[in-house]
Structures are given as C-alpha cells and as structure tokens.
Amino acid sequence: QVPLKPGRSLMDWIRLTKSGKDLTGLKGRLMQVTEDELAKHNKKEDCWICIRGFVYNVTPYMEYHPGGEDELMKAAGTDGTDLFDQVHRWVNYESMLKECLVGRMAVKPLAAPKAAVLITLLFVGMLPEKKLLHASAKDLTPRKQFSSSLYFWFCSYDWFQTESSVTIVIYTKQKDLNAELVIVDCQDKQLRAEIIMDDHCFLVEVALYHAVEEDVTVNIAEKIGKVQISLKKKANLHWKMLGQPLESHNTFIKHTDRGPFYRKCKLVSKTEVTHDTKLFCLMLPKSTHLCVPTGQHVYLKQIIAGTEVVKPYTPVLPFLPLDFKAPSHCDGAHLYFMIKIYPSGLFTQALDHLQIGDFISVSNPEGNFQKSQAEASEDVFLLAAGTGFTPMVKLLDFTLTAVSCLRTVKLIFFNKTEEDIIWQKQLEQLAQKDARFEVQFILSQPTKAWEGKEGKISSSLLSECVQRSRKDSQVLICICGPAPFTEQGVQYLMDLGYSPEEIHAFTA
Length: 508
Ligand code: FAD
Ligand code: NAP
What we know:
Its EC number is 1.6.2.2. This protein is an alpha+beta fold. The chain folds into 4 domains: about 10-105, Cytochrome b5-like heme/steroid binding domain (Flavocytochrome B2, Chain A, domain 1); about 150-255, Immunoglobulin-like (Sandwich); about 260-365, Elongation Factor Tu (Ef-tu), domain 3 (Beta Barrel); about 370-505, Nucleotide-binding domain of ferredoxin-NADP reductase (FNR) module (Rossmann fold), CATH 3.40.50.80. Helix content is about 20%, strand content about 30%. The protein is built from 13 helices and 28 strands. Strand 18 (about 300-305) and strand 19 form a beta hairpin. The radius of gyration is 25 Å and the shape is globular. Bound molecules: flavin-adenine dinucleotide and NADP nicotinamide-adenine-dinucleotide phosphate. Flavin-adenine dinucleotide binds near residues 10, 312 and 313.
C-alpha cells in the first residue's frame, strides 16, 4: 500500500464513479479492443488494462489505486489478469471499475484456466473427452440408471433418495479429509460442494430438481475421504434427477482458478474488546458447512454507496481458551472476527453501523499457511502488531493442543499503547497457567506509567526476544501486522540467520 493524496480514498473513487463523469472518454460507447489497440494505451495519462477479457481505461483510477500508480502501470496496455490475480484476486474490480469499461478484447487473450487443466488431463489420457467438455444432465440421474462420471481419477460423486431425503456422496480417496476441507452451501435450490485437495478442489454444483429444507447435514468419513451430504426434501416427491449441472459442476481445478464464492451471514453479536476493536459474531446459514482453517482468512463483502467493497479478515476464537486439552473445533454455526474500527475506515465504519440481525457476505477461506509448518516445531514465536494478533489466536490454540514436540510458544505483541492491547488479561492468565506459553508486550507510544518493554520491531529487539530453547531446536516464527512491520520483521529475522522455511509471514 502507498499513501494516497487527500481526496483519493476508495470513498472518493466511489463518489467519482457515481458523478456521471465520462471516465472512459468514449461517451458510454463500448468497443471491441484488439491487442494492438490495447498496447497503444500504455502511458500514465492514457492507460488501458485487460482483466479476464474485459478492457478498462484505468487512467482516472491511477491516483486512487491503494497499491500506487507504478503497480498499475506494470500492466499498462497489456493483459493484467495474472498480475491482478497474484496481488488481489478477491477485489471486485467489475464493480469498482464498471464506469471505466472500454469493451471486450476482440480475441480472447487467455485460454480459460479450466480448459487448460482439462486439456492436461486429456493429454495424460485420464478422462473421456465428451464428459470433460460437456457435463450432461444425464450425469445427474440416479445411481441405478447411471453411475457418476469420473472427472479425475480419485474424485467422483453419486446420489440416492428416499421418500423424504436426498443424499449426495462424494468419493475422493483422500486420506485425512477433514471438516476444513469440505465446504457445502445450499441456497435457493442450488447445491455447491467443494472438496479441497492440496491446491486443487473438486466441485459438485447443481441446480436441484426440487426444493429442499434449509438444514443440511454433512458427514465426513475421514479415513476413506468420503463426504455424505444429506438434504431434506420440502415435498415428498420422487426426483427423476439430482438437477441441472451448473457451469463448474464436476470439475477439478486449481483452487485459485475458482472465482470467490460468498454466502450471507447474520450478525448476531458485537462486543467491545478494546476502545476501538470489536468482536463480531456472524451466524452461518444452516445450509452452509464451513470451517475456516488455522492461519487462513476470508473476505467480507458489503455494498457501500452502491459499490461492492471487499476486505479480508481473519476469524478468531470467541475467547482465549485457558485449558488447552483438545483443539477448539469450529462449531460450524458461527464465525468470530476481531476487527479494529478506523475513524476514517470505509469498510470498518460500515461494519460498525450494521445492526444485530443484518446480513453480510462471507467468502470461502484463503491463505497459504499450512498447519504442517507448525506440527514439528519445538519453539514457536508469534510476532504480532495490532490486529495482526488475529491469526495468532487459532495458532496458539493449535500449537498448545496439537503439537506434541512443542516446548515453548512466545507471543511478542507490538502495540501503540496499553489500551490497544487485545485480550491482555487473558494472555497474562494463560502465561501463568501454561508454562510453555510466554507473552511479551512491547509498546511504541507508552504512557509514563508503563513498566514493560518499549520500542518498535528491530534487529536488536528480535535477537533478544527470539531465541531457540536449545541449540538446533526446530523453530517456527509467524509474523503479522501492518505490511511494513511484517516486511521489516522478515528481513531482520533473515539477517539474524533464520531460514525462509522457519518464517511464515501473514499477508493478503
Ligand atoms: P480504509 O478505508 O482502507 O482506510 C482508512 C484509514 O484506516 C487509513 O487511512 C488508515 O489510517 C487506516 N487503515 C486502513 N487500513 C489499514 C491497514 N491495513 N493498516 C493500518 N491502517 C489502516 N483487520 C482487522 O481489524 N481484523 C482482522 O482480522 C484483519 N484481518 C486481515 C487479514 C488480511 C489477510 C489482511 C490483508 C488484512 C486484514 N485486516 C484485518 C485489515 C482489513 O482488511 C482492513 O484493511 C481494515 O479493516 C481497514 O479497512 P477500512 O476499509 O475500514 O479502512
Ligand atoms: P497499529 O495499532 O497501527 O500498530 C501496531 C504496532 O505496530 C504499533 O506499535 C505500531 O507502532 C507498529 N507499527 C505500525 N506500523 C509500523 C511500521 N511501518 N513499522 C514498524 N512498526 C509499525 O496496527 P493496526 O492498526 O492494528 O493494524 C494492524 C495491521 O495488521 C493492519 O495493517 C492489518 O491489515 C494487518 N493484518 C494483517 C493480517 C494478515 O495479513 N493476515 C491479519 C490481521 C491484520 P507506531 O507507533 O509506530 O505506529
């Protein structure tokens, strides 16, 4: 992120897009853009960018781009889809840039990722061609008439019915399939079940034949990788088929090649944690099965002044458990977020104005932290600044309950003032209770009364606070906070001799 000039915030951009000003310079006309034409618009004062086949004149947006003009210019006059996906795949550019739309590319510049994967699979001779390219309604007929198609050698699905229920069974053969790897939603007669396997996922996505009740039951046979989704029929009718396949039905593609999926969650409580930070509890729909893995975040989406605005947030536990015996399992019904409300924050102000009972959209989880990074660690260091504490909450829970070789967990928590410290008392209590856990608070703007440590992240501070409990012990150092804090911290740690494998930085 770069500092933006006054009057160049996201809200200012939204206002400009609603002002009726001609932002493309084409007076509302849409055109077919050739690659040659696109390439001509490669200057700051005349900059077009293609994203997923659509061309935008981003010249008026330059000064509003939170990542700075230079970042935007990297894609000037070219197809910026890959760059965009690397940096912020989740940003709803269609909504943000709709007034900048110039038109479509005359020739689609990129092969669709799905097609690329399918072609690879065809090439290795795994899949029958016609099923790959056209998921037919026939695939959705009951078991006795047609067994489910095999899109990938270890993924298939099937379904059966009784008078009152419909059951979909997904077979993955993935060992250790768990609740975090299965995401199911059933909204408006549409069933969507996503099974995550490393960086790929298998999707069953169907417009159901008839309506079903809201509560959906998901059972996972972890050892054999089988998922059973039970739906209750609204009317006791015989279903001739499961339903109509939707666009991505029965596909197995890279996780990052799927568009974001959102479901609406109800705000059920909002409690103060510090003077500016609140704990929001959202209730998932009964028809959703979603557990956000440790170290991952989701995107929250709200319509603000008529524009969809999306920001990432990291779910936490509702409180800090003091008795770490078994990992706190998600109850599958609620998500908790610890969110700092910024006085001039576009998203957090809107969030703070939500009333209990209001709805907000929540995406599927994302993030590149793997629990396996922590599983063999003996010493874990958690370096958090401000709300950068949020990923550390579940990490604390996980390391203290599930990492058998763990010797120490040390949280080094950077804040401006004492009143900014999230869960200070609970953390102190935990340190008293569990000899493996230690917490150190470091304040950058303390009052005179503060007797603890003072300062900012630095090489000398880290060499003092981050030390192996024994020579050659296996360490994991996790770091999260404002981007410059995280970047500097990583650099200091590398300078101190820690390897990239020993460091995990939480970023977008
Ligand atoms: P904006 O309108 O974007 O900014 C308004 C003002 O707020 C800015 O001028 C600045 O003073 C301040 N501000 C805004 N963003 C930041 C920032 N990122 N750092 C410092 N100051 C800022 N936040 C949480 O509170 N809880 C979380 O669990 C959480 N998880 C996150 C997970 C990820 C992966 C990432 C990348 C960020 C996370 N954030 C979290 C930050 C969050 O996404 C937003 O950036 C933040 O809530 C501010 O949004 P806003 O629209 O209100 O502020
Ligand atoms: P804050 O209160 O502004 O700052 C917390 C501490 O970090 C303060 O001591 C502050 O010192 C220090 N700090 C701030 N900027 C720094 C910098 N450039 N270099 C060194 N130290 C710095 O923090 P906040 O408002 O809660 O913000 C938390 C941040 O964490 C946000 O940027 C949020 O996006 C990020 N976050 C990321 C994730 C994720 O990626 N997964 C999750 C949650 C939160 P000063 O007195 O100098 O300001």
